[in-house]
Amino acid sequence: MTHQYQSIVREITTPTLPTFLTSCLALISSKSTGKVLEAPASLTESILDAFSTLMPGHPAIFRPFAGQIRQVTRVYVAPTFCDGFFVPESLKESARSLAVLLHQTAPKNTSGEEWGKNVRELVKEIHTTTDQVYRAVVEDWESAAGYVSQPVDVNEELHGGGKSKDDYPAWTGIDAGLERLQGLLGYLEEHFKHHTATAVTVPLGIIDDLLTRLMSVAAPQPSKNGSGHGGMRLHPAISREEREGLWSGLPQTYIGVMEVYGILIERLQHNFTSLAQGCLEQITWTFRTGKQDEKYRAKAYDVIATILPLCASGLPKPSIDRMTLVIVSCCKELRTVDDVVPAMASKDSSGKTTSNGVANADSFLKNKSILSTADVYDSEVVRSAKALLPQLFTLIPQQHLEAYTRAELDRTAILSHHKEAMLASVLSPFLGRNGKSLPSILPHLCRAYPRDSAVEALLRPRLPVIRQSGPVMGAPLEEELDEDEDDDVAMDDLQPVDKQEELSENIDHITTASITTINEASSTDVAIASSTTREPEPNHWGTSAPQNKLYARKDPQNKDVAAPVTTISEGAPRIGTTTRTTVQSTTTTVNAVEEEDSDDESVHLEAGLSDSDEEEE
After folding, report:
1. Sign of dihedral through CA atoms 388, 393, 399, 403?
2. 84, 213, 220, 426: least buried by Cβ within 10 Å?
3. Is 104 exposed, middle or buried (0-12, 13-18, 19+ CB in 10 A)?
């Protein structure tokens, strides 16, 4: 809070912060011996989090305490069960975060070099630990960065660490060695999660060399001669118990490697393209060994989903063939729920399985709740498989897939009701080597999502706009007549009466209709006052224009004889009583005749309506 105010930093923070650091470090470590005290894990975590918050704003104040802080965090960065105490996962993350931020305490303009130095030392430490952990096999890996493996004495017990004061705590045994190796990989991943004070140079070559070595060892598969080695060369001096412990811990090591790959892809983006295909090859190589672990499968699906956009378009057919195992496993993940739910529904309330030959409506009603809620919460591996499935259609070159593999993908998309995957399948048709294409799953997509907008656009992409059969209620009629000339209403029969000659020819018909309507209106209680003409209102152009226009409808039997004139009011409601509409038409017509200086008959009509006009006034 005081970092933005230099005067407060000078008066309060600078004098008191060193005392605060000294007091906190005294609670969790001994300054004389350098050993970590047995403080509560929650207290240690709170102190480390406070240091991580204060260090970026005050690196100069933390510089004298950097060595002591490094010794404290080293204990919690990669702990093992040989340490004699339990370290929560949250405390590990806090210690790793603070250890990474220590490079900011370096002198000015050297923090970037300090960060790179820490990464190179960490990579060397991981290599040293790997020399011990992988001693049960004869590695075929050769370093491309110039690292030379250290000789290991196979007659001694497996051990590591604790060689100096600044070294990590000592460990013994294959289980502790795997735990230390996985902790160091998590520490390496943490280096790429935090921002640095200055630009840094990432030693990507030695990191990729290390990850390639860790992924080059896989558990042996049954071979044709029954030896069970499957091409792996085992060290004869190592006991079977140590080898079995290594095989059981390999999936967790693979997960740590893939987490490092994931954070590198997130940071480097398209700059990781040169390493993308090699990373994909390593995952497919180790998938047979680690596929029994659910966490491994989930992480493999996530990393493959981030790698495919970088290198899928250029993958050769052999690489696609090696991915078949991953594709089949992804399909199996999504179809497992569909196989489990019916099995759950086939059991009665007591948990016993009902006979397959006996089925009634009551059994389905009782298990309706099971069917509706069994697949609501997807596991992590199912969510990762769902994210990968559409990319197997859109990114992988479909001509390199086998027909049965593509059929399995289509079947999985349909059975799992995966809309994105079904859309991707329709948009990426499959053409076999013999020139025959697989049937499209578009009918299944339309049946599963009949009201989806994406499906509708895919099904009818160029359907022309359907015009309305009639004018919209309340819309101006003249604009509709200009825009919609082909409407169902026969507008050709309506002709404007703008000339005095046409009006005089039809005056007899007008007079007869007017007198009849007036007689009917006078015998009823219809309010004739509402039918009088109003002053013209300004339209939306700001001018005063008449709202009524005269039209004469031709007689369909005799085209030369015009029918009585009616008026169509723009914006007026079309539905009303017959008497009111007739009076409005009559009054409007009489006013129009009066404006055109009509003959004496129209004057008599004006006199006939004088009584009603007085009542209205």
Report:
1. positive
2. 84
3. buried
**End-to-end CA distance of the chain, in Å?**
80
Query: Which of 122-136, 183-197, 533-547, 573-587 is predicted least confidently?
Result: 573-587
For 325, other C-beta atoms within 10 Å of its C-beta total 13
Report the alpha-carbon angle 130-132-136, nearest 5: 100
Here the tokens at position 402 are 């086998």
In whole angstroms, give the CA distance from residue 555 to residue 490. 13
User: What tokens appear for 478 in the block?
Assistant: 């003249």
User: 450 near 418, Cβ under 8 Å?
Assistant: no
As beta bridge partners, residue 538 has 544
Return the percentage of the chain with pLDDT > 90, whole number.
47
User: Cα 162–167–170 angle (5° rounding)?
Assistant: 25
Which among 389, 416, 418, 417 has a CA at the least distance from the CA of 405?
A: 389
pLDDT above 60: residue 520 = no
CA distances from 269 to 112, 275, 306, 307 (A): 21, 11, 9, 10
Rounded CA separation 467/527 (Å): 39
Place of tokens 């200086």: 597
Strands (E) located in 164-244: 171-172
DSSP-derived letter for residue 566 is E
Length of the chain measured in residues: 617
Angstrom CA distances, 459 to 417, 454, 467, stand at: 18, 9, 21
C-alpha–C-alpha distance, residues 58 and 8, integer Å: 13
Alpha helix (H) residue ranges in 453-595: 453-459, 477-483, 500-505, 507-522, 578-595
Residue type, 340: V
Q: Among 105, 103, 101, 97, which residue's Cα sits nearest to residue 45?
A: 97
Phi, psi for 271 (deg, rounded to 5): -70, -10
In angstroms, what CA-CA distances link 257 with 130, 232, 254, 303, 382?
A: 13, 21, 5, 11, 21
Please list the residues that pair with 347 across neighbouring strands.
Answer: 353
pLDDT mean across residues, the chain: 76
Strand (E) or helix (H) holding 496: strand 494-496
The pLDDT tens digits of the residues spanning 558-599 come to: 444 444 444 444 444 444 333 343 334 434 443 443 444 444
d(CA 130, CA 214): 8
The pLDDT score that the predictor gives to residue 14 is 80
